[in-house]
Structure formats: structure tokens, C-alpha cells
């Protein structure tokens, strides 16, 4: 059965979605949830254990605190308070930590370190998954059991000011609230002033029990200029003054004989060395947690802060306020908070925490009895019952005290084991679903590889032996075998498998489809093998696309692409993927240099026609073309690969990326320092001028004028935000936020895009003018370049400039002169695009995404343009190389006849089907290899943030 290439590509994509979805369903662990639909209540709490008789008391410890103030400073790193500069940044808080009645800890946040999952962790005690990264953009109401709901049910009066994520998560939970948007990162003053302005009046009132303050300014400064910005210290001192005001007000209102207050200072996540967050580096996961209350012992000096999990705060606050612990909490109470309570109350607190963890363990793990924590809790509970028996008998000897301390220790060990077992549950994968999805995708990969020559031929059709496969005996035998395997796995699996929960009808469809694909794959492989043997035996003079000869460059491109994909099976290669692309790019430049040398330094005895036909990447028809100025062409062609090597080496120095060396200083840090602003200004001017000279050549005069004004606006914007300086600018002059200047550039971007789109539509609808079409594409490309120059940081403009310069030189002196075919040029664009993604400073860590560019030219948060601008800036490198590929192939197609022999299938494709189909096929091939390589034991233990690249291919 023959199908068109476009239909074949669509079927492959649709089938791939099924395989990838099944794989990811097994790869993403199911969140730990209690099986109970209702939430915990005080009536559900267990009684105190008592040995020798039935429990005779359901006594609950009295609440420890009357009022709780939670001051959450977004992106507060632990070294901002506990580091050597803590006394300078936050002097009052540091004094409280060292000398006052307080406990201080380093609270470790679990990845993903973004705000909404961290708020969930703080209020539920559970560990959110990576799917919450996507939900962070539009946080739905939190329905699972949580501290805020428990407090509201207990008629606690809650007031909230700050990040409106809380308002979306907990609608109708707050007695009074004032939310501020967290996404407009350009604002780091008003966003905090809107919180602080309520403090004076709120602290004087007595009609609240819980006050929550979420400050965003520090996080926004980190996104704008990083953790070492001059803005960091003033912001931290502002937060220190806020804490001082709150602490003083709580002390002044403390009444004799009443329950004490509790002041909590914490961060939801930290801040990376570049000022972002989302990954699992130490600066991102380590946050300070300071608990201040007169109920604690007064310190006599600075103590090293202990290390706890961030989720431990939820059960601690719940028990401290006399509330039930949330059902899905995996945290354990902080023992120091209850040290001043009686021994009976301390044991009761730990018993309640252990009971809740034990219930969650039973709900989430079928083999819970084999867990060490389960047995340890039973032993501790039994010892607790024996202690209670002696306690009720009135025993007050030292034996009772020692026994109670022993039980306390047993409880703490049991809680640690239970919490650890539940946390490890997040690292367990549904292996059956993963293997099923992986096999499914691998079959698609092999079919795609075997059908590629036919799909890219002049006929643009693929012959799929569907009928013969469905009517063959192996198809029915394979269906029976796979169905038997499915029954065997689902009946013997100790843990739940998603694939086993599907209906039998749906499973049969999947089994039949997979069996059919396998039979089709075997038929196509046999047919391809027979064709290869036929051509090898006859050695025809003229071959078609069924014979696929490879040059040295082809071997390099294919081996490099497949080798890179296979390297993704190792976590270290994912962390440092940029090193792989840098190596491949350097090797490619050397290969191009070798081809240039072969062209211009071949032995003189070789005739011109023979020379052209023997070139590894050149077609015979080009020998008849005139060669202008051979001498200068030769030296420019020789210099282009070397110049590309030099540019790539310099670009590597601008931004440190990856994991291991991301913290090291680079040229970007040097340029962004205030001492070198003049150097950065001169470099910016040079790059903008060179950008204009490289881009304007193929544009109309209207677009040239618009491009020139737009680039002037780019420099004006950078000067307005303080990155560069004008020669006549005075330092004392108050600068704007660059909103007007950015919108000025947007006008010219839209104008250039409109002009290019108009020419493109005219060439397709009114007149079939290839030159007009090519000009329209190049004008759209120039509009994207102008937009990228506005969004790029000033120190990254050399990356954009070098991108354009390398494109110009290679296309002029390498691809044209050596006559590389469309397949080779496409893969080269792919390589360069991936390398320039890392040249920008990006990595496979979502913490490297620059959110601040989403608000260039905006005065408030608007979701659609913010997401678009952020994505465009992040993927500017691959996007510009992809657009250049389309423009280049379109402009060259009408100048050259279709080549025959090696590589002719690609140019034939451009005449028979849209170029987008070819790009889809190449992308699908790459994704197949990626998903296949992901399944590796070495990769599974790695943190998930290394695999979430914000949608990057």
C-alpha cells in the first residue's frame, strides 16, 4: 500500500505520541496520595497507646502557639543569612539567630524548585512532581488535605498578603488578603511595598491567628541581575527591617500567661549562580528556616544550623497549632520545637506523626510490611504503651524518664525510616509501561529509517506492506504472544502498572498494532536487503534513491547525530551536553576544511570534470559552471572553517553553562560588571552595526530603513535599563525602565515582518516570482533577528552577531562552492542551532531560563506575550538557524538544477512536498532516538530536572 510522504509523516507522528505518552506515564512517578477521599480531622486521631488494656484516653496535647506569622521571602538562599555576609545583609535576623530564643535550620527543597510546588510542599507536607512546573503558570485550587484548610476548619482566622499564587491555591480560605502577581519580574519594589503597607495596621489588631507574608522582590532581582547584584543587599536589609518590625510587634503584644507566638522566616526555594531557579543545585535547594518564639530556649552563641527537609515544616506547624497533620504529608516533626513540652506530650506528638506516616505507607505501598520503618514504628508504639502504663501507675522514678527518652529515640528513628521510604516512592517507575512505550517507539524508529529513502524520493511516496503483514501467520502468533505476556505481567506484578489498568479492548488494539508494525518492519527490511544485494550484483551505471551512497562527510554527520543521541543515555552527558555539541561542531569545521583543501589543492594532473565528479559532496553538473575570481575564493574558503573555529571558541567563553562549571566566572560576568560598562557599550555598538550590515543585504529599502531604526532602538533600550551608556548620558540622571524604547523596536519588528509576509503572499498568490518569495523569507528572517537582538542580554549580542557572520560566510564560501546537498546542509544547520543554544548560556536545567525577557516592553504581566518572548529568547539560536535553512534552500532552489546521484532525493523532495515535511521527518527521527536512549539504568536515578528542558528538542 503506497501512501504519500506527508500522510506517512503524519501517521508516524500520531503513533509516536502514543508511544511517548505510554513511556512518560511510566517514567513520571505517581504522586503519593492517601486512598481516603476525606481529609483528616481531630476525631480521626488515634488514642494514646496503653499496654495491657484497651486505650483509655484520646487526649491531645494542647496547642503550643497562639499566633503564627509566616514570613516567606521568595528565593532566599541559605548563605544570604548563614553565610559570611549574613551579618551585613540581615543584621537583626542574624542577631536573633545567634542570641535570641530561636531555632535555625537549612531546609532542603526538593526539585522542581519553582514557587507553586514549593508552596504545596510547605502546606501539605507532600513532595510535588515535575508536572507542577507546568501548572505553576496557572495554579488551580489545591484540593488535597493541607494546613490552610485544616486551620480554616478549626476556625483559625488567616490573613495573607503577597504572591497571588496562594490566593489561587486557597480560594475563600483567607479572612483578608491582597495578592500581587509573581510573574512581572521587572518590578522588585512595588511588589514588596504592596505587602509591607498592610503590616502596621494588621500587627495592631487582635482578630487574626495566622498571618502569611510572601515577598517577591528578592526573586525578581535574581532573575534580573543575579545573586551578586548590587540590588541584593538593599533588598535583604529591607526584609530584615520587616522581620524586626514584626518581631517587635509580637513581643509588645505578648501577654502574661497566654500561649506564646511563633515567627517563621523561610524561603520557598533558593537562587542559582545565575539568579534563576528550578533545578537541584545546592544554592537552589538550600533555604534558611528560622523559628522564633519565647517558647524556645535562649541561645548563647551562633550554632551551626541543622539540616531538615522543607516538608518537615507542615507537620510541625500543624501539631504546634493543635491541628491534624495532612494526610499526604511525608514530613516529620522538628523535635527541637517540642523540647520544652512534657515528655508525655513529646511522645504524643511523635506518635501522631508516626501514625499519619504509617497510614500513608499502607495506602501507597502494597508491600508496606517489609519496610523497616513500619516495624520500627510498631516497636516504638508498643514501648510507648509500656511507658504509658508505668506513667498511669504513678511511677516517677528515673527509670520512667530514661525509658521515655528511649521511646523518644525509637520514634525518631521510625519517623526517619517512614519518611525516607515514602520519599523514595517518588523514584519508583512503572517499568512495564516504560518498556511497552519504548518498544513501540523503537519499532517506529526502524520503520522510519527503512522508509526514509522512499519518503524523500521524487515520487514522495512510501510502499508499506500492510496487507501482507496483516494476513501473515507471524502476525497472529505475535498477537497471541504479546497478549500472553501482558496477562502474565499484570497478574504477577507486585506494584500497580498503568498499562495493566487499561481495558482489554484497548490493550488488544495496542497489541495488534504493535504486532502489525513488527511484521511491516520485517517485510521492509527484507525488501531493502534484497534491493541492496541486487544493486551490488549488477553495479548499474545510474542509480536511483534506492541506492544510498555515503561520503566521508555523510558518515560524520550521521555518526555524530546518532552518537549524540546515544550519549543522552548517560546523566553526565545530559548535564554537560554542550560539550558534545562543541566537539561535534569543531569536528565539522575540520571536515569542511578538508573538503576545501581537496577542492583547491588537488593534483594538477586531474582534469576539471574528473575533479568535480570525485568530490565527496559535489555533483558533476557543477563542473560546467563559471568560477569567478578563483584565487580570492580559494583563500576565503580556506579561512571560513578556521574563522568558525575561532568564533566558537570565543563564544564558549562568554557564558559558562552545564552543571560542573556553571559557577565559574566568565566573560559575561566581566562585561556586566559596572567597571567595564564602557567596554560593553562599545561592543554593543559594534555588534549592532555588524548585524545591520549582514542582514540588510537581501531586504527591500523599506525594511533596511526599519532595521536601522530598530537597531538604534535596541541600543536605546539597553541604555534605558542601565546595561550600556550614551556618550552624553549623566550618571545622576534617572533612567526609565525601557518600556517606550522596547515598544519602539516592536513597531519596526512588526513592520519588517509585515513587509516580508506581503512579499511572500504576493509570490504565492499573485505572481509566481521566486526572487520575490526569497526576499520575503529573508525579510521575515531579518525581523526575527531584530527581535532577538532586543531580547538578548547586552553581553550576548556577540553570540547573535557571530551566528549571522558564520551563516553568511559558510553559505557563501562552503555550501555554494562545495555544492553540499540539502540533506547535509540541513544536518549542519541542526548542529549549529543546537550549539548556539548553549552559546547563549542555556543548559538542560530549567533554572537557566531567563524569565525577565518575557517582560521587555510590558508594564504589567500579560501571559501570552510573556510566554512567547521567553520562549523566543530561549530558543533563538535553533530558531534562527532553522529560519536560515528555509531561506537558504528557497533562495538556492531556483538558481540550480536538481542534482542527480548522491543527495538528489532531498532536492527532489523540495519540489514534490513542502520543506516542512522533510524537517518533520528529521525531527521525528531524532526524537525516536532520544526516547530510545532515555531508557538507561544510569539515567533513571538522576534528578528529573535534567530531562525537563522546557520543551527544548
UniProtKB/TrEMBL annotation:
Residue ranges occupied by any GPI ethanolamine phosphate transferase 2 C-terminal domain in the UniProt entry: 545-942
Q: Does the keyword Transferase apply?
A: yes
The answer to whether keyword Transferase applies is yes
Q: Name one GO cellular component term.
A: endoplasmic reticulum membrane
What are this entry's molecular-function GO terms? CP2 mannose-ethanolamine phosphotransferase activity
Record-linked InterPro entries: Alkaline_phosphatase_core_sf, Phosphodiest/P_Trfase, PIG-G_N, PIGG/GPI7, PIGG/GPI7_C
Tell me the superkingdom of the source.
Answer: Eukaryota
Which Pfam families does the UniProt record give?
Phosphodiest, PIGO_PIGG
Pathway per its UniProt entry is:
Glycolipid biosynthesis; glycosylphosphatidylinositol-anchor biosynthesis
What is its membrane topology? Multi-pass membrane protein
**GO BP terms:** GPI anchor biosynthetic process
Location in the cell: Endoplasmic reticulum membrane
Enumerate the Gene3D superfamilies for this protein.
Alkaline Phosphatase, subunit A
Q: Give UniProt keywords alphabetically.
A: Endoplasmic reticulum, Glycoprotein, GPI-anchor biosynthesis, Membrane, Transferase, Transmembrane, Transmembrane helix
Signal peptide (from-to): none
- Where exactly are the transmembrane stretches of this chain? 7-28, 431-452, 464-489, 501-526, 678-695, 707-728, 740-756, 797-815, 866-889, 915-935
**Which family is annotated?**
Belongs to the PIGG/PIGN/PIGO family. PIGG subfamily.
| Protein name per Swiss-Prot or TrEMBL | Phosphatidylinositol glycan anchor biosynthesis class G (EMM blood group)
